[in-house]
Write a structure and sequence with these properties.
Helices cover 46% and strands 13% of the residues. It has 309 residues and is of the alpha+beta class. β3 and β4 form a beta hairpin. The longest helix has 16 residues. The radius of gyration is 18 Å and the shape is globular. The protein has a 6-stranded mixed beta sheet. The chain binds 6-diazenyl-5-OXO-L-norleucine. 6-diazenyl-5-OXO-L-norleucine binds next to loops.
Length: 309
């Protein structure tokens, strides 16, 4: 079913776009810095297959931290929650996504949750396979399975750019290796994680993933449980408590839906039982979340009374 452009969404996008000038496109990964600061698009995917949208919805972007929800779902399905939560905790940090501080101040150095970089690196480390290629292919196949889009791939330039500039993530990994939460070659892990973050899609496909989480892992179109209900619920809970990093509390109060952001400017939203949302707006606030994307969600949540609280 084609995604119909929607006049009301278009008006919200026009209003929210005004905030893009107050933010900044991420450039700590140099290849991300090329995006148009003013870009803003949204798609809403309903369980019955209908889709409405506004903005340049064909524009592809990389998942970045949004991929952390998918890798978490994948390892929970492969290994089970008992094993996964031996390596990573369940508590929000209130710190920036790449912060190292809690690893040292809390004993025994176990990352507090899978949405911060330290926790996500441990989760990616748990993806099984003989080689980076083989492990990445498994994860990508899983994303293809969730979306039903077999053409999905990753952005090589952005993956390479992240690999070359990931010294802080390397530092996190070495700390975690010293404390036995990681036991593999760190260059390999950074390679795998950079590719994972560079998986690329447009906001239509992202909204489709959001819809699947909104429906507790069930895809009504294909009449299949793609992710077990319990795994989908764990992921959504992390999206509420840690999905927007140290802005998660304010986001829960103002918007009130499970959501996950990435430094590319993507936001995936899952409105429980109702629909999935995919947003792309690369201008970021100081916490690394899409500044216009959050405004857009705020207006949408108010208009449609979306808060689950
Ligand atoms: O680890 C990193 O630096 C990135 N590839 C992902 C970070 C990210 O998207 C944080 N989100 N707001």
């Amino acid at each position: 079913m084609p995604c119909k452009s929607n006049e009301e969404l278009y008006q919200l996008v026009t209003e929210a776009r005004k905030y893009a000038k107050d933010g900044k496109v991420a450039d700590y990964i140099p290849a991300l810095g090329k995006e148009n600061q003013e870009a803003l698009s949204i798609a809403i995917h309903y369980p019955d297959g209908r889709c409405i949208s506004a903005g340049d919805i064909e524009k592809k972007f990389t998942l970045q931290s949004i991929s952390k929800v998918i890798s978490l779902a994948y390892v929970l399905m492969e290994l089970g929650k008992e094993e996964v939560f031996q390596y990573v905790g369940m508590e929000p940090t209130g710190d920036p996504f790449n912060s190292i501080i809690k690893l040292e101040t809390l004993s025994p150095g176990k990352p507090l949750n899978p949405m911060i970089n330290a926790g996500a690196l441990v989760v990616t480390h748990l993806i099984k396979g003989d080689t980076v290629e083989n492990r990445f292919q498994r994860l990508l196949d899983f994303v293809k399975e969730i979306t039903g889009d077999i053409s999905l791939t990753y952005n090589h330039e952005i993956a390479q750019s992240e690999f070359e500039t990931s010294d802080l993530n390397r530092a996190l990994c070495y700390f975690l290796k010293q404390h036995h939460f990681i036991d593999e070659d760190i260059e390999q892990l950074i390679d795998l994680y950079s590719k994972q973050c560079a998986i690329e899609m447009n906001c239509l496909v992202l909204a489709n993933i959001g819809m699947m989480f909104a429906m507790d892992g069930y895809d009504p179109q294909r009449e299949r449980q793609i992710i077990p209900k319990e795994v989908a619920r764990i992921c959504k809970t992390f999206m509420v408590t840690c999905g927007m990093y140290n802005a998660s509390g304010e986001f829960a109060i103002k918007i009130g839906i499970p959501a996950k952001s990435g430094v590319s400017g993507g936001i995936m939203g899952a409105v429980p039982g109702k629909f999935g949302i995919g947003i792309f707006g690369p201008s970021l606030d100081e916490k690394g979340n899409s500044i216009a994307g959050i405004k857009l969600l705020e207006m949408l949540s108010k208009k449609l009374d979306l808060s689950m609280f």
